[in-house]
Design goal:
- The chain starts with a strand and ends with a helix.
- Helix 1 packs across helix 4 and helix 3 crosses helix 4.
- The chain is α/β, with parallel strands linked by helices.
- It is globular.
- The protein has a 6-stranded parallel sheet, with helices on both faces.
- The chain has 2 domains: 142 residues, HAD superfamily/HAD-like (Rossmann fold); 62 residues, DNA polymerase, domain 1, CATH 1.10.150.
């Protein structure tokens, strides 16, 4: 078994949440600031340093209001959340094959629970680290290392699977095998390739070959 522990990002990797994130970013920017920034600008920091940092990039003096409006719009949208096509089967196959699975995400734990209430995959993961559980966030390795610590795992025996440049940087900094995935629709493949991941895959089933 090449990597006995496999950690996953959540948004755009396990759950297909790119569309609802974008919708809520658009809503917050327009409602609070009266602006309509390009989608690329709104989504550039998704999956990394957290929602507050994303909003700080839009308006440093309106962060709290932007976050409040975003969450009020975004949380009800989780009722229609689905998993990324094909990931369910891959997770089950990894688990049945003896892999230990975990989640490391920029989402708050409460929002992770909200996602798994709609997409019933939470039971497959032995550990979950949310964005409100560490002082530093991806691309810092801190949340990944916390997950490894909770699972009593050597980071060198872990792989981290994610769809953002922040995921790849965090995995490398943690000494983990960095696997980039392209199906999330949040970050372009070229951005992921520039980070030099150990592997990059286009379909969930391809994970079985690289892990």
């Amino acid at each position: 078994m090449r990597f006995p522990v496999v950690l996953f990002d959540l948004d755009g990797t396990v759950v297909d949440s790119g569309a609802i994130i974008l919708a809520s970013m658009r809503h917050a920017a327009k409602e609070v600031l009266g602006i309509e920034p390009p989608d690329e600008e709104l989504m550039a920091a998704v999956g990394g340093p957290g929602l507050e940092a994303q909003m700080r990039a839009l308006a440093p003096d309106r962060v709290e209001e932007l976050v409040t409006v975003y969450r009020a719009h975004n949380e009800p949208l989780h009722d229609g959340l689905v998993s990324c096509d094909g990931i369910d089967d891959v997770l089950v196959r990894l688990k049945d094959g003896g892999r230990r699975l975990g989640i490391v995400t920029a989402k708050r734990r409460a929002t992770v629970d909200l996602a798994f209430a709609t997409v019933p995959l939470g039971h497959l993961f032995e550990a979950v680290v949310g964005g409100d559980e560490t002082a530093r966030h991806k691309p810092s390795p801190e949340p990944l290392l916390l997950a490894a610590e909770r699972m009593e795992a050597d980071p060198r025996e872990c792989a981290y699977v994610g769809d953002s440049p922040f995921d790849i940087r965090a995995a490398k900094a943690a000494g983990m095998h960095a696997v980039a995935v392209t199906w999330g629709g949040i970050h372009e493949r070229a951005k992921l390739e520039r980070e030099g991941p150990d592997a990059i895959v286009d379909r969930p089933e391809d994970l079985l070959d690289v892990l």
